[in-house]
Specification:
It is a multi-pass membrane protein. One of its GO terms (cellular component) is membrane. InterPro entries: Cyt_b/b6_C, Cyt_b/b6_C_sf, Cyt_c-like_dom, Cyt_c-like_dom_sf, Cytb/b6-like_sf, Cytochrome_c550/c551-like. The protein is mainly α. The chain contains nine helices and no strands. Helix 8 crosses helix 9. 11% of the residues are buried.
């Protein structure tokens, strides 16, 4: 026993030591200045680092707040959904024929399930003590392929998404009250609501509220089209067309 050094042990030379690589030192007092008390020294440093990240996160949320969209409409068939960024690779995977449609179980259950099971089973599948990636080619190759696939699918999802249309379809627009028993609304619902929304708020097509449309312009667009609107959308008599144009014009001026 040496004062200040703790108890010393004498090894038995008859017991072979195959490797001392992972054997920790018996006495950390040999490393002055390289150890510290957990409470309060180490814990205080952890709190300080956490506070810096928390303040930075709060600044980002204030400077660039999350965008809000209009109220969800389950009846809108033209809405293009987009999940959060960490699910974009799965979202892109479901766009491929081999993982969608009648094979959607492959993209939604089989592939993610196999990845989750492989991750949980990794400690049992690879029990080697070597830590260098070059010495563990199978595990390294699998992880590299996983990361490359996730990055590629995420990138493909962002570049192939129609951001302009998504911005328009999610935009919060003004709503107005009108009489849904109006014959003009019934014609609008039959001919135009699939693109311009049940309440003229817009869907695939733009919102008509606040556009201050002239009845003649409405009739021209309904029959001849223009811009992204195809010709011949309206199917009906001239009397019905007049009723439709009057209704849309009146609502668009509110």
């Amino acid at each position: 026993m040496h004062r200040g050094k703790g108890m010393k042990f004498v090894g038995d030379s008859r017991v072979p030591v195959k490797s001392r690589k992972f054997i920790p030192p018996k006495d950390y007092s040999e490393y002055p200045g390289k150890t510290e008390a957990f409470l309060p020294n180490f814990l205080l440093k952890e709190w300080m680092v956490g506070a810096v990240f928390l303040v930075g996160f709060m600044i980002l949320t204030i400077a660039d707040p999350a965008p809000l969209e209009k109220e969800a409409d389950p009846t809108s068939s033209g809405y293009i959904p987009l999940p959060d960024w960490y699910f974009l690779f799965l979202y892109q995977l479901l766009k491929y024929p081999a993982a969608s449609g009648q094979y959607k179980v492959i993209g939604t259950v089989l592939i993610p399930g196999l990845a989750a099971v492989a991750l949980l089973a990794a400690p049992w599948l690879d029990r080697g003590l070597e830590r260098r990636p070059i010495k563990r080619p199978i595990a390294t190759l699998i992880m590299l392929l996983t990361f490359v696939s996730m990055i590629y699918l995420t990138w493909e999802s962002t570049v192939s998404h129609n951001w302009e249309q998504a911005e328009q379809q999610g935009k919060i627009v003004q709503t107005v009250d009108f009489d849904k028993s109006d014959p003009g609304y019934k014609l609008f619902s039959q001919n135009c609501s699939s693109c311009h929304g049940e309440n003229l708020e817009g869907a695939v097509g733009p919102s008509l509220i606040g556009k201050n449309l002239d009845p003649a312009m409405v009739k021209k667009m309904a029959t001849q089209g223009g811009g992204q609107m195809p010709a011949g959308v309206f199917k009906g008599s001239d009397k019905d067309l007049d009723a439709l144009a009057k209704f849309v014009s009146d609502v668009s001026k509110k």
